[in-house]
Amino acid sequence: MASTEGLMPITRAFLAKYYDKYPFAPLSEDVSRLTDEIHSMSSDLHKDSPLTQGESSLVHEAESHPPHKVDENLWKNREQIEEMLFLLESSNRPPAFQSQSTAEDAELVSVLGRLGEKFRSTLKNLETFQSKNSEFVFNTVMTYMPQDFRGTLIRQQRERSERNKQAEVDALINSGGSIRDRYALLWNQQMERRRQLAQLGSATGVYKTLVKYLVGVPQVLLDFVQKINDDDGPMEEQRQRYGPPLYSLTKMVLNIRLFLSLLWRRFEAGKLSRNQITVLEEAVDVYTSEFQRFIKFIRDVFANSPFFITAEEAGALEARKSDEYKEVSVPAGKTHEVALTVDAINSYIAWDFSLIQGRVDMDIGFSMEYTDPSGQKTQILPYRRYGADQGNFCTILSGNYKLIWDNSYSTFFKKVLRYKVDCIPPVVEPELSTNQVAE
């Protein structure tokens, strides 16, 4: 097992000391004031008009306490921003002022255009933050993984999983799914990413086959990815520190969206007053500026978080270098061969090798061949000369494979080969049931 020197246990107390250095400046008092004003304006709109089922759901959501998890709140804000951008599109505005028949209507159209620009800018910042943060977490975890075919296979598995997730979203959109449907799917996918990280730590699910090959991974990291998002785990400290301002912003955006939704359906019954326009514009201005401030803050907190310690600092690289590698001297004019038996198709034959170089840079030939039950040989990988190489091959036939390092072309120089090879059974991503998808 790799050294864990330099790695500290990930505890709430440990994170609390770190978060003490990152206090979040309180939100503007305008957030609470404008949320109340927008809520009151919404109540006025529907007090004399019955609510549709969808509007009732919106009212209930706006009056309920926001979700507890930080990332779920971020997704909730993103959903509401997209819903409002949809409402603000010219084709979705109330017919009563689409023609811009009066100067008053023209002024309102101008205001709505400015609101749309602020929402689009905020949405772009949020999307960028979520995308980069997801990559950052995964790549940081991967710095602890052995830098050979095992890490490569986990990356390939993740890439396949992300392609499948995007295909699910595309299919939903093409079938006419609503923005709400899309975000329900996106949140389920986010929870699936969490489960996959936890599976890395507990050797279950899609990574069950791979994790047993992860000799050299600090146990503290596996514990981290398994427990970090538990309800009372280390990240609960973050939720208690930074959750309240985010909850206030979630409540604010829900109330702004509720007001716009109610207004659009009742617009012809009574146009916006000057005061309502002023409150709406101020609310959007305060919300977008404060929410973008929060995103920038939490991005900096994540980027500097001490529970992501580099592999170099942990002293894991040296331990990894000696992990399960073999060394062999291949004399001039000779070859070195490793035979593997593959029991199941779609298994991976993986390799990682290099030459221990002296004063002169040297290379060695490398190829792979397959032998069928009748003894017929087929070259799988064409012969090439390398100083080092790392790769994997997905088999389409079971049977006998041979990896060959060829030094037969050398007349004088032996080659000291350092290598690792393995046959890894198929890695299959299981389909999740509806119960497994729900948290």
Automatic annotation (TrEMBL):
Domain of life the protein comes from: Eukaryota
InterPro entries with a match to the protein in the record: GOLD_dom, GOLD_dom_sf
UniProt domain GOLD: residue ranges: 321-423
Bias-annotated ranges (Basic and acidic residues): 58-71
Region (Disordered): 42-71
Protein name stated in the entry: GOLD domain-containing protein
Organism the protein comes from: Anisodus tanguticus
